[in-house]
Amino acid sequence: MADNLISVTGLSKQFESGDQHVTVLRELSVHLGRGESLALTGPSGSGKSTLLNVLCGLESPGSGRLAMLGQPLAGDGAPTGKALERAWCELRQSRLGVVFQDANLMPTLSLLDNIRLRARLAGRDDTSAGNWLQRLGIGELGQRYPDQVSGGQRQRAALAMVFVTRPALILADEPTGSLDRRTAETVADELFELQARHGCGLVLATHDADLAARCLHQLDLGHQGRP
Ligand SMILES: Nc1ncnc2c1ncn2[C@@H]1O[C@H](COP(=O)(O)OP(=O)(O)OP(=O)(O)O)[C@@H](O)[C@H]1O
């Protein structure tokens, strides 16, 4: 496994809004090694989700160099076209664990089956699925469907879906944002414990200063381009 999980140099991202170009990320450099954690902070609209989307291949960077787990994905040496799509798919399938603000569970499967399916898609053993639900405090909800549980419970199931694949790198957008304080702490404990135990990397976007302070590095996107 590459020691450098994330290597981003001079990355910029613009969006078109009507006839205007809005620069959201400006000349960013980000490096993350194995077992390290990074909190993306900054006010609403500063580009935290946009950066996470670039890091999991859902948005392409406008310019700059990007390599994930040693694989160049933008700039020098990066594949293009279908080969680039394939490279991102392979990374997301088994090596990146992505947690979005809206938990991405299949509505027609129970929570337990969602997690089993995710494990199988990543080529992992699915027998620990129930155990992960248990550890995240929703073990008794495994037979329920996503629309039969609360938003916070869905969020915990989405985290179980990530943990069960044992990813090299977890990218999480407000992973505890929809949880009450006590549950948020339990979930954060699980995140950091998993990271310590398996030496995986973690990048999370958060407005929670306490959660950000638990990460090894912090990047305030509200201060991009300023000295
Ligand atoms: N597809 C898009 N097209 C145009 N503008 C966009 C697009 N996606 C995001 N933006 C804009 O980019 C800026 C950064 O958005 P982003 O969601 O990355 O911020 P954020 O820091 O994650 O915010 P929050 O803390 O509210 O989640 C915002 O001004 C947003 O409106």
Present the secondary structure layout.
Layout: E1 4-17, E2 20-33, E3 37-41, H1 48-55, E4 63-68, E5 71-74, H2 81-94, E6 96-99, H3 111-121, H4 129-135, H5 151-163, E7 169-173, H6 181-198, E8 201-205, H7 209-213, E9 217-220
Parallel strand pairs: 3-8, 3-9, 6-7, 7-8
Antiparallel strand pairs: 1-2, 1-4, 4-5
Helix pairs in contact: 3-5
The structure holds adenosine-5'-triphosphate.
Adenosine-5'-triphosphate binds at residues 15, 17, 24, 42, 44-50, 205.
Summarize the structure.
With 227 residues, the protein is α/β, with parallel strands linked by helices.
Question: What would you note in describing this structure?
Answer:
The strands form 2 sheets. A 5-stranded parallel sheet has the order 6-7-8-3-9, with helices on both faces. The protein has a 4-stranded antiparallel sheet with strand order 2-1-4-5, covered by helices on one side. The mean pLDDT is 90. It has 227 residues and is α/β, with parallel strands linked by helices. The protein is built from 7 helices and 9 strands. It has one domain: Rossmann fold. The site of adenosine-5'-triphosphate has 12 residues, from strand 1 and helix 1.
Q: What labels would you give this structure?
A:
globular, alpha/beta, 33% helix, 227 residues, five-stranded parallel β-sheet, four-stranded antiparallel β-sheet, Rossmann fold, binds adenosine-5'-triphosphate
